[in-house]
Amino acid sequence: MVASGHPKVQAPRLPRKSTKAHSTSFRERIKVGPPRLTDFEVARIIGIRAVQIQVGAPLFIDPGEVRDPISIAERELSSGALPLSIKRSLPGGVFQLIPVRWLMEAGKEDLRVEV
Predict the structure, then answer these.
(1) Are 27 and 106 in contact (CB under 8 A)?
(2) pLDDT reported for residue 2
(3) Considering only the top CATH level, what class is 33-111?
(4) DSSP 8-state secondary structure symbol assigned to residue 55
């Protein structure tokens, strides 16, 4: 951003990125709704993506021998290749945009059993 010649106008400062790795689990990052993809969300994502594939959208994975758009959409979702976010809302206007990858990883965290 170019600052104007006015002495009181300054370019906004960008926040510094932390060099520390995030140790927060995906479950803890998801504040709205269940910490996994719901059955409704899975069906909606696969259905919408299958229609996109059917009309010629580029694929995010190599389909191999599979030609069925629904099967390709299922593979794309399970591989984590879809660059999508789910918008979950609460009454009062509070919402969170959650990357599908986070929801998939949080679902896997639920399945892990610590001994």
Answers:
(1) yes
(2) 46
(3) alpha beta
(4) T
